[in-house]
Amino acid sequence: MPNLFELQTYLEPLSLRLVQRGLLAAIVVAIICGVMGTFVVVRGLAFLGDALGHAVFPGVVIAYLLNLNLLAGGLVAGLITALAISLVGRTGQVRESTAIGIFYTVAFAFGALLLSRSRSAPRALSELLIGNVLAVRPEDLQLTLLIGGVVLLLVWAFYKELVLVSFDPQQAAALGRNVPVLNGLLFTLLALTIVASLQTVGNVLVVALLVIPAATARLLVGPLPAVMGLAALLGSLCTFAGVYISYYADIASGGAIVLCACGVFFCVLIVRSARQRLHLGVAG
Amino acid sequence: MSSVATSPKSAGPACAAGQPAVQLAHVTVAYGARVVLQDITLELPSARIIGLIGPNGAGKTTLLRSIVGAQRVLEGTVRVLGAAADAVRQRVAYVPQRRDVDWSFPLSVLDVVLMGRYGKLGLLRRPSKQDRELALDALKQVGLAKRQACQIGELSGGQQQRVFLARALVQDADLMLLDEPFNGIDTTTQSVIFDLLCEQRQRGRTVLLSTHDLHSVEQNCDQLVALNRRIIAFGPVDQVFTAPVLQSTFGSQVAVVGDGQTVVTRN
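Structure tokens for the assembled complex are given below, as produced in the milestone run.
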């Protein structure tokens, strides 16, 4: 057990290139997850986030089998699925949640099928399911930084449109905005975020990093930009803590990060509920 | 089509000044195989407050959305302020039903009103100081200036409706379309809204509002459109607000008592 009150405990891991790289990638991921997760939480898109997390799987498997970049493969699969969901949702024949349910399971099944043809269950793929911060390679970090930059830039540029289409799509349509295109942009940004998260928390746990910090921030602050900022900050802090725990306890980083975030969420929830009850008690 | 349907030209002298606000010719709208609006031909004069009445499922919302260009029409033509709907979007304000949006969304009152400026702002530009002043001014008009920084979830239903109205006012539009603005709000808010709409009419603007509150439209509208998938009647209130028209519009949902002045809707 490392001594928590010694500076050396915090500096030692940072002296390793491996940890530096992983931590930087994980924090970039936490920031974009905080921003995109705010959209996920206020629009109730957790299911879509989960679906896209699974949908990247076949792309990753294909990329592995063809010896291509895994994240690039995941990205293509995620984007194709996001596009398919929004096109089928647009026909108005089935509910969007039905379209999501169909496409992500189909994509996941396809991935499982492909994987069963390869001889050994490769370790690289299981790492993408649950994530491993310490396995981030320099080219992965570059791609994560690139994706992070693109996501933040596009959210910044189209912030007012993305908020409008999320809050009141009818008004957006009445003002002449192309609602399906803007929703497609939001889904694409979500797919990008998920792909960037593959290395650090993995495609299954990414939903937690999208939903939990944003939900926690939503309990604490009012305005939308503040929710985004606080979610990014909380996610980064939990990532920091999670990476250290994972380093010293030698456990999966994705799980450690998510459990930290979950702990913070429940603390905030309990304190808020207690205060509310106290408030009501005084008022009554 | 009832015999009371009149040409809009007979509506009053003011409309001779301007072109019709809305012209629909043989408009049909369908969702899949289900026809929602059938062969709608209608010419709404400008500078009027026009009520759109009809039972649930009559196609009121669809008609408003067709006029604003947010609903594709299967057949027929829609002309708004003398042009195609797409060309005059910035001169048309649309207020959706209050229950259509999630009021727990983390936005302030001023944020929502500023959305009314987005049409003029275009894609990448942010609201300027002047936009904020205009939004604040609209909030003053609806009596909510003091609550500009509040989260929209903290407002009452009537206040939420007034925020939506302020968002429409800030668009500075020549045609305002309001979908069920009186749903679940108190009579005070209702009269505040009607006062503001009358002011718009005085400035030559046209208001088309859908409602199933027959009492309020009878008192406050200049003209009425009775709709049930097709146009049942259109004309001045005293000609449309009659027992035969209401009964053929609402069917069994309406009971006309005595001299035909008292109407009870069963919803």
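Chain B has one domain: 8-265. The mean pLDDT of chain B is 85. Further analysis is deferred to the final report.
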